[in-house]
Amino acid sequence: MQKPTMLPATMTEMWATMGSTIASFMFLWAIIRQYCPYELRRFLEKYTHRLTGFFYPYIRISFHEYTGDRLKRSEAYAAVEAYLSANSSKSAKRLKAEMGKDSSNLVLSMDEHERVTDEFRGAKVWWMSSKVASQTTRSMAYYPEQEKRLYKLTFHNKYRDVITEAYLEHVVKEGKEIRVRNRQRKLYTNSPGYKWPSYKQTMWSHIVFEHPATFETMAMEPEKKREIIEDLLTFSKSKDFYAKIGKAWKRGYLLYGPPGTGKSTMIAAMANLLNYDVYDLELTAVKDNTELRKLLIETTSKSIIVIEDIDCSLDLTGQRKKKTEKSSDDENEKLNKEIAKKEAKEEGSGSKVTLSGLLNFIDGLWSACGGERLIVFTTNYVEKLDPALIRRGRMDKHIELSYCSFEGFKVLAKNYLDFEMHPMFDAVERLMGETKITPADVAENLMPKSPTDDAEKCISSLIQALEEAKEEAAKKKDEDVQETTVEDAVDQSH
């Protein structure tokens, strides 16, 4: 009968002794921290960690938010944060909601001191969000130091090779892809060099890219549209292929055709399809070839570099021909001298970008920095461009955007009027086969101008525009025939 009463007494004494021992240890540790020199404490901690390392079977890896330069956030930390926010943090009970730096959506991540588990190839790992107080005192720092955040990865020693060689690579890769999917795409433009302030970190300024154009809404033949989409998607998935053949991961597109045929809309659709940023490069604002290279270096991967109206941006056509031509005529020499003087006066303010510099920009050594880029030229007059500029290898794919076809009209009718078929479509098809009209003109006629405009009124407006274009084309053709007849008569009289 006495044994049951002795057990609680023994347990009570044991807990009392343990509590007293812990209290004594805590008191002793407080005295050591208070009076023991910092150097001695660091020495003891150093060898204590080494001693416990022989018996502790787990390994810990830390990912600090800021490493080295406090102004630059660690790419590894950002990748881990994105990976955990989309994967492991689904099981976390305490989450932190923040607005992403390049995103308009809320981003959920683990709160401080939260712990979650993950599994990779049979290896179980633990992630913990933590923070460390800065050692720098506020009185000595120019800016008040904040607590430094970090992620801690813990795993068993037997999985060391799997984690360090495969799992970390998987985390960083997945994290970067998640950041790209969630990022807010941007439209960049370059400013003239003399306007760059000394504190500016980049040569590009940007706004949020929100153009709604897609290939589904473009007025284009379905087969041609499908061909372009497949080409773009194949390029975006060909990193290993480009590395195997020894080429930089980039591709050039030349968009040409009359004004109003959708060249700028095509660029926006390409960016929306691939989720790329757009860099609208204004060549006339670039001082020289060196500045052009600096702009190229500052572009990121997964981007489209656009030079619109390349034939009008700079006088890049015919430069080689001008160098080889020689004039023995005194009048021409005098004219050349006057032109040279004029160019010398404008030298300080004009751009010195040359055809050679632009060619090196497209496919020279500097073009290999970064990867996954599209370089797009647009022009209304492809025949004016230097053949070296648009040859295969520089502008790999030439896309002609011509006048609106009946298939393109049906896409626009669906977009603007929500009609796929209408009795008046037959008249439109007949007139489109007899005259030319741009997609921009078709869209303008199909757009309702007032709340009372219905589908029939818009289609009637288009039919009227097509008939007027047909009459104007016939009139111009008659005038050309008359001019040709007069010229032939004059030639025969001589």
Description:
The protein has 494 residues and is α/β, with parallel strands linked by helices. The protein is built from 17 helices and 13 strands. The protein has a seven-stranded mixed sheet. A four-stranded antiparallel sheet has the order 1-6-5-4. Helix 8 (289-297) links the parallel strand 10 (277-280) and strand 11. The longest helix is centred in the last third of the chain and has 39 residues, at 455-493. The protein starts with a helix and ends with a helix.
Give me the secondary-structure topology.
Elements lengths: L1 H34 L2 H16 L4 E7 L10 H12 L8 E5 L6 E5 L4 E6 L2 E10 L15 E9 L3 H23 L3 E5 L13 E5 L13 H15 L2 H7 L4 E7 L6 H12 L2 E4 L8 H9 L5 E5 L2 H4 L5 H6 L5 H16 L9 H9 L9 E7 L7 H4 L6 E4 L5 H12 L7 H8 L6 H8 L8 H39 L1
Parallel strand pairs: 7-10, 9-12, 9-13, 10-11, 11-12
Antiparallel strand pairs: 1-6, 2-3, 4-5, 5-6, 7-8
Helix pairs in contact: 3-4, 14-16, 15-17
Summary, kept brief:
The protein is α/β, with parallel strands linked by helices and 494 residues long.
List keywords for this structure.
494 residues; four-stranded antiparallel beta sheet; single chain
Q: What is the share of helical residues?
A: 40-55%
Number of beta-strand segments: 13
Shape: elongated
Tally of alpha and pi helices: 17
Major β-sheet, in short? 7 strands, mixed
Strand content: 15-25%
Along the chain, the helix and strand elements come as HHEHEEEEEHEEHHEHEHEHHHHEHEHHHH
Q: Extract low-pLDDT stretches.
A: 136-145, 317-329, 339-349
The main sheet orders its strands as: 8-7-10-11-12-9-13
Helix and strand composition category: alpha/beta
Q: What is the terminal-to-terminal distance?
A: 144 Å
Radius of gyration: 35 Å
pLDDT average, as an integer?
Answer: 79
